[in-house]
UniProtKB/TrEMBL annotation:
<feature type="transmembrane region" description="Helical">
    <location>
        <begin position="160"/>
        <end position="179"/>
    </location>
</feature>
<feature type="transmembrane region" description="Helical">
    <location>
        <begin position="125"/>
        <end position="148"/>
    </location>
</feature>
<feature type="transmembrane region" description="Helical">
    <location>
        <begin position="26"/>
        <end position="47"/>
    </location>
</feature>
<feature type="transmembrane region" description="Helical">
    <location>
        <begin position="59"/>
        <end position="82"/>
    </location>
</feature>
<feature type="transmembrane region" description="Helical">
    <location>
        <begin position="185"/>
        <end position="207"/>
    </location>
</feature>
<feature type="transmembrane region" description="Helical">
    <location>
        <begin position="94"/>
        <end position="113"/>
    </location>
</feature>
<dbReference type="InterPro" id="IPR009495">
    <property type="entry name" value="NrsF"/>
</dbReference>
<keyword id="KW-1133">Transmembrane helix</keyword>
<keyword id="KW-0472">Membrane</keyword>
<protein>
    <recommendedName>
        <fullName>Anti-sigma-F factor NrsF</fullName>
    </recommendedName>
</protein>
<keyword id="KW-0812">Transmembrane</keyword>
<dbReference type="Pfam" id="PF06532">
    <property type="entry name" value="NrsF"/>
</dbReference>
């Protein structure tokens, strides 16, 4: 068979590529991440009883903004890593900026606080459970983001898996804020980041197996 004949055979009945497939996969992954985390929160922890009051507090919105911006940054990085050969570029800074901002704010608040109160500001009342609660809420998102990414054929598997894990952890942290009573920035800088790192590390470790194609 000649080359031209082979090409003609392969392209016979070919359909245009679905340009909306990527958006649909990522949209479903984000919806499952958020809805799944909300369901686990409501069935396992519940929302804080003073939530209506907190919604009128600027500090509470800053608390929500931290994981929200992290989720946006992780999504931008994951979307690039999911495509073979695509460069991430400056999208890494979208994840670094909120971390730096929270850590700097934590250092400042600790610096101005009395020495006797600093440990309490870092530990709060839930430091033992907080990271693991976040990791638990991240399970639906972890599964959904890996499903979305696997369909895009990534090549840098461990980095892509870490980004997918971070996205699920950031969304879970955002939802967990509706339950968590901690309002100290120093607490967020340690234990929220620790909670997001758990699915991130797991994602990097499992990526060669889960994302292989």
């Amino acid at each position: 068979m000649k080359t031209d004949d082979l090409v003609a055979l392969l392209t016979n009945n070919a359909q245009p590529a679905d340009q909306t497939m990527v958006a649909r996969r990522y949209s479903w992954a984000l919806v499952i991440s958020a809805v799944g985390a909300v369901v686990l929160l409501l069935t396992g922890f519940g929302v804080r009883p003073d939530l209506p009051v907190m919604l009128g507090t600027p500090l509470f919105w800053a608390k929500l903004a931290f994981p929200a911006v992290m989720a946006v940054g992780a999504f931008l990085v994951m979307a690039r890593l999911a495509r073979p050969g695509a460069l991430v570029g400056r999208r890494w800074t979208a994840m670094a900026i909120p971390v730096v901002a929270v850590v700097v704010a934590a250092v400042l608040t600790l610096g101005f606080a009395p020495a006797s109160e600093r440990l309490t500001m870092v530990l709060g009342v839930s430091w033992r459970s907080c990271p693991f609660n976040i990791a638990y809420l991240a399970v639906p998102g972890f599964i959904a983001t890996f499903w979305a990414m696997k369909g895009m054929a990534p090549t840098r598997l461990r980095t892509a898996g870490a980004a997918a894990g971070l996205l699920s952890g950031a969304v879970a942290t955002l939802i967990y804020c509706l339950h968590c009573p901690e309002m100290e920035v120093a607490f967020w800088a340690v234990w929220y980041i620790a909670g997001m790192l758990i699915p991130t590390v797991i994602g990097a470790l499992l990526a060669p197996r889960l994302l292989r194609w």
